[in-house]
Structure formats: structure tokens, C-alpha cells
Amino acid sequence: MAQFHPMELFPNIDAVYMPNVPTRSDPNRSLLRGLEILRAFRPGSDVLGNAEIAERTGLPKSTVSRLTGTLLKAGFLFYSPQHHGYSLGGAVLSLSHAMRSGSILLQVARPIMIAEARRLKINAGIAIADRDEMVYLETLRFSGSSSLRQVVSGQRVPMALTSLGRAYLSTLTLEERRAQLAQLKSKHTRDWSALRPEINTSIQSVELNGWCAASWQPQVIALATPLPIEPQAIHILNMSIQTSENIERVVERLGPELNRLKNKLIQAHHAHF
Which pTM value belongs to this model? Predict the structure, then answer.
């Protein structure tokens, strides 16, 4: 059977580099297109009609109509006659719960992260890459408070703008990084001349210090570091704080703390086995 690269098979889907997909493969076309439909749903876009899904995915409307029907029967989508659109079904939540509860890393990391975040009065999180974004698997919010608040797993943040994303980029091979940066450039064309040097500086910071820092939201400073624990997925650990301090003072204080937390998580994970 002929072999094709995934991007050759899906010219109508956003051509986003996927480092975990083999260079040459024979993917199931309908399955990947069905997953593209599920990806179209985001917070604030919880009900979508076939036309909206087609616009978001670049798939033909006839294909979308056929696949939403299949996903509906399989329990991955609900249909609302009142809103004339689809929403994600309970099977999707069940999969995410199975992923979280089955992660030894998250089980081991959570109590340690809670203790450190509470002690330092910061936010702490673990994220992985998904195309041109980073997805939080765990996020614990203590910044400005001694009580746990706003725990939002599954939240997405942009790869190019965040310390999480830039720390992730530092872990890629030169070939993988070149392809990923090309995709980020296509999304951030207007700002790329400023972003690229920042990304390069962040990658150098990870290589030199073990972490990088960024402030892409007003008065929020975040530091991130690769967490080399599970080889099947690159996890990134971060700390962030809401503050009016300048980034240099925050980095000086939290950089060593982030490295210490990383070492604690690595040791705890190894001890589990």
C-alpha cells in the first residue's frame, strides 16, 4: 500500500507540524478528520453547526455532515435541536478523566506542587504541546491567596508567546524545531520579527539556566522548564505569579525554586517505581 505523509493526505486541514507522527505513515483518513472535528470545539465555542465546523477545519461540508453523524452515534457529540448545533458528548470527558487518572506523573506531582505553590503563593502547572498551543494537564492557583482556586485543566495557551511553549521548543531536535517554528511564523506573521528573537533567547536560557521566563499577560510573569520524566510525551513544568515587580526580580527569586521543584518531581516519580 502506498505511504503518505499526514500533511499530504489532508490539504484542507491546517498544516500543523506533529512531531509525534512518523515521517512516513498511512493514517486513517476518516479517523483523523473526525478528530479534527472534535478539535474544533473550544471554551466559548461549545455549540457548533456543520457550517461552522467546516469553516474551522477546512473540511468539505458533506464530509463534516457525515462525520458529525458518526460521532453523534458514538457518543462523542450531542445534538441540540434548540441551538441547531453539536456539543461535545460525555465520552470526551470520560477519555480526559481516564488520561488524568492514569498518569503516574500527575498523581505524584499534584501534592508536591500544591505544597510548593501554597508556600510560595504562586501558580504551578504541567503542560504538554498540542500543535501550536500548550495544554495544561494540571494547573494549581495560589498566587495572591493561600487557598487553592481556579483549577482549570485542559486550558490552552499559545506556544509562541509563553514560557511553557518556549521551554517546549528547547527540547526539540533542530529539524523538529525548524518545522514547528515555521508553523508558528505562519500564525504570528505580523509579530514574528519580534517574537523570533524572544524565542531564541528563551531557548538559550533553558540551555544555560534550565528555565526560561515570559510575560505575555499584563502583570503576570511565568517561568517554565522541561520535565524529563515520561519519554512518550514532553512535559513542561511552570510557575507563574501575578505581580507588579519587574521580570528580573521575579526570575531571580523563582528560577531556583522552579529548578528545585523540578528535581523534587523527578525524584518522587523515580521513587514511585
Answer: 0.84
Q: How far is CA 160 from CA 85, 110, 116, 171, 195, in A?
A: 32, 26, 27, 14, 7
Residue 29 has phi, psi (to 5 degrees) of -60, -45
Among 261, 250, 224, residue whose Cα is nearest residue 239? 224
**Same-domain pairing of 111 and 72:** no
Q: Which residues contact 105 (CB under 8 A, 6 or more apart)?
A: 126, 227, 229, 230, 235, 265, 269
Q: Is 205 in a helix, a strand, or coil?
A: helix
- Helical H runs in 43-173? 50-57, 61-73, 90-101, 104-120, 163-169
C-alpha cell at 120: 510560595
Task: Let me know whether 66 and 127 are in one domain.
Answer: no
Q: What are 105-157's pLDDT values in tens digits?
A: 999 999 999 999 999 999 999 999 999 999 999 999 887 654 444 546 888 99
- In angstroms, rounded to a whole number, what is the distance separating the alpha carbons of residues 144 and 124? 13
* Residue 48, beta-bridge partner list: 86
- The CATH number given to whatever domain includes residue 243 is 3.30.450.40
Rounded-to-integer distance, Cα 137 and Cα 140, Å: 10
Sole residue written with cell 490552552:
156
Report the percentage of the chain scoring pLDDT > 90.
74
- Provide the phi-psi class of 210: left if phi over 0, else alpha when psi is between -120 and 50, else beta: left
Number of structural domains the chain divides into: 2
